[in-house]
Amino acid sequence: MSSPTGIDRVTEAYGRWLLSRPDVRLIPVCTIAGVASPMSLSRFRRILEHERPAREDADIQWRRLGEALSAAPGEAATLRAVPGRSLQARAPVRYGLFGAKALASLRAARPGTAALYLNVSHFGLEQPRVLERLAVRGARMAAMIHDLIPIVHPEYCSAPAAGWHVRRVESLLRHDSVIIANSRSTAQELRAFAKARDLPEPRVFVAPLGLEPVFTAGLEAPSTARPYFVCVGTIEPRKNVAFLLTLWRNLAERMGEKTPWLVLAGRRGWENEAIIDHLERSPPIRRFVHEVNDLTDSQLASLIKGAHALLAPSFAEGFNLPVAEAAALGTPVIASDIAVHRELALHARLLDPTDGPAWLTAIQAAAQSRVRGRISTPFSWDEHFAIAGQALGLAHAGGARALRSTS
Known about the structure:
globular, single chain, four-stranded parallel beta sheet, 12 strands, alpha/beta
């Protein structure tokens, strides 16, 4: 199976965790037109197990990438994203069928007074009537906040996103919701938002996201003819990929045939026309940059492990799983100097995300000698759910390295 990304991965992890608990009576809901409409557990399980692109497709792409990384520039075409695998194209496929069925039988969930409404995806919370209707029936509220990027950095999101996110966060705070934050950075931004708007102090628990076991499984790295670097994530303005491509053009002018490979591992997001123009039209970029998407977890782990460094020049992040994954694999990290990277990547080389000369120097130094980074102990999903269970008032199993945030 190919790797889910971001919020999808967290939603699936929570779904499986709750389904595994005999002490929880789970009623999955879909939020449409301000109504939390219930669905059957069997349909919910089908969504969690929704067929992703065939493993054969990922294996073909992985084999082609291995061949390309082992070849000299010009001997084989650089890889580009598989058509039809964009983020926008996949979302309707994944959720559209369920949405249509929910609309056909729209009815409000009727929770009891002991019910807890938990939202870990953000979606639906921009409809204030959802929490209002549930609160009338005595339900408690809880949610995971992945980031406040649409509010703090609206320039990196679609035009309506800031308004939607303000409504989400304000509604949660006004209903005294329990908030699970994925990082101290996100928790601090949430508190600052509440204070600036004179809203109640949030009840926030910090629970870093867990890594999949494959990122600590000791997989072999691919064999390549020259150094390569990897950047993992959706291709969109916030990820600062255009900056990386400008760096690679400069590297090609400096290093010629000794220029290292750059592998972009992620789906194409929104407003990326300038990035795609670079990928498809710039001669140096066409020679030295590969683009892949929908790799399996094990393939992605191998790819990160074999890189001379993982590059993360993002302008803003709520968490950033690839940075945590690279640290767990012992792959050096060169990342933007932002709060969450200072929190996650204690031994990373952190640089201003606009300082081209500093990034060029760091990348050239990493290309000349492959030095393994210090391996960090990753946060596990068991540890995450120990904190989440405490936050939600559920009996927890196992210890946790972090509890309710007090700073």
